[in-house]
Amino acid sequence: MNDKPETAARPDAGSAIKPSETTEEGSSPSTTTGSFASEASPAGPSLFDRVLGLFRHRNGTSLREEIAGALAETASDAESFSPGERAMLNNILRLREVRVEDVMVPRADIEAVEITTKLGDLLGLFEQSGHSRMPVYSETLDDPRGMVHIRDVLAHITKVARVRKGRTTRKTAVATVLDLAQVDLACTIGDLNLIRPVLFVPPSMLASDLMGRMQTTRTQMALVIDEYGGTDGLVSLEDIVEMVVGDIEDEHDDDEPMITQAGEGVFIVDGKAEIDDVAKMIGEDFAAGEHGEYVDTIGGMIFNTLGRVPARGEVVQAIPGFEFHVLDADPRRVKRVRIVETLKGERRRRAARTEQA
Predict the structure, then answer these.
(1) Whole-angstrom Cα distance, residue 301 to residue 291?
(2) Strand, coil or helix: what is 77?
C-alpha cells in the first residue's frame, strides 16, 4: 500500500490563476473561472469560488485581511458565507495562534500501555479503548518509549499464525490458513518489537508547525513534554484537524445519547446537543431567549454567556431557573454538562428538611 499523498491530482489554487495562462479565445483566467463557476454552480458560487475570488483584487492588502474582512461582513445575500463556512474559515485563521497545549489530551486522560504488557492483554486494551494507536511507556508516562499500532499487532498475529498447505508452483497460489494456537499471547510488547517512534514536542509549539512535522515524518502521534521532561499530554493529527473542521467521528466511536435524565430536574447533556432538543426534553420552562438567535448548541450557549470556554467544574447561570455544571471541557469546547432545574432542586431540599424535622 502506498501511503504517500497524491498531491499531483489535487487542484492548486495558485495554478488556476496564473496571469500568463489564457484561454483559446484570449480571455483571462479570472473570466474563465467565473464562467465555469456560474455553469457548475447555478444555485450560487461555492465556498471555493468565493475564497478564490479573494485572490484576485487584493489592492495591496494581505489575503488574511481580505478573508477576515469578508467574514466580518453581515451580508445576507446568496454570496455570503454560511455559518458552517464562517466557522471553518475562522478556525483556519486562528490555527496559527493555537498552541499544542490548547489541543492536547491532558495527561490524566491519556490511555497508554506499559512496555511489559502481554499481547493478549494488549488486544483487550485496544478493544476497550477503541483507539488504533496507544502510547507505550516504561513504569510511568514520564518514561515514554513510543507507540503501538493495532495494524502492527494484527500483522504479527497473522504472520505467526499463517500455515501453508499444498505444493507451491509459479502458476498456483499458496493455500494458507491461520492457526491461532501458534500465537504466544504471553509475549510482551517489548519482546515483539512492535513499538513505533512518536514525536516529542513542547506545549508552546504552534499546532500548525506540529501538523507540518507530522506530515513530514508521517507520524500521527506526539507526546507533549514539559520543561522537566515529564509527559504533559498527547496530540494526534486528528486533534489538530478537528480544530478546523470540528469533531470527526468514525464507526467505532460510541454513539451515546446526547441527553439523559439523571433524576428529577437533573439532566446530563452533551455539549453538542441542540438547544431545541434539550428544551423538548426538559419542558417549556427551559427558554433559551436571545441565546437561540446566536448559537444552536448547549456548549455554544455557555460560551456565549461567559465569552470564553469554561473550566471543568464551573457552574454557569445561562438561563433563569437552571444551573449548568460543566462536567467535562477542554480549551476548545464544552463536552458534557449537568443541567439542574433550581426550582425543583429547592423543592427537593425543602422536602428533605421536612422529613428530617
Answers:
(1) 6
(2) coil
Q: In what order do the strands lie in the sheet with 199-201?
A: 105-106, 231-236, 221-225, 199-201
Q: HEC profile for 143-161?
A: EEEEEEEHHHHHHHHHHHH
| DSSP assigned state of 180 | G
The DSSP letter of residue 171 is S
Query: For 198-208, what is each residue's pLDDT tens digit?
Result: 999 999 999 88
Grid coordinates belonging to 244: 478546523
Among 96, 122, 151, identify where a domain stops.
Answer: 96
Q: Please state, in angstroms and rounded to a whole number, the distance separating the CA atoms of residues 186 and 350.
A: 59
Task: Name the grid cell of 87.
Answer: 466557522
**Mean pLDDT calculated for residue range 21-47:** 44
In the chain, % helix, strand, coil (3-state, to 5) comes to: 40, 20, 40
Q: Residue 48: which of 32, 59, 34 has the closest Cα? A: 34
Strand 133-138 and strand 266-270: the pairing is unpaired
pLDDT, tens only, 73-120: 655 544 566 667 777 777 777 777 888 988 888 888 889 999 999 999
Rounded to a whole number of angstroms, the distance between the first and last alpha carbons of the chain is 74
**At CB < 8 A and 24+ separation, what contacts does 51-56 make?**
51/13, 51/89, 52/13, 52/16, 52/17, 55/13, 55/17, 56/17, 56/30
Which residue, among 269, 249, 273, has the nearest Cα to 323 in the 3D structure? 269
| β-bridge pairing 231-236 and 259-263 | unpaired
The residue among 48, 77, 96 that closes a domain is: 96
Domain count, the chain: 3
Give CA–CA dist 304/323, Å, rounded.
15
Helices 150-161, 119-129: inter-axial angle, 10-degree rounding: 140
Which is more confidently placed, 4 or 342?
A: 342
**158 & 235 share domain:** yes
Cα dihedral 226, 232, 236, 237 in deg (nearest 10): -40
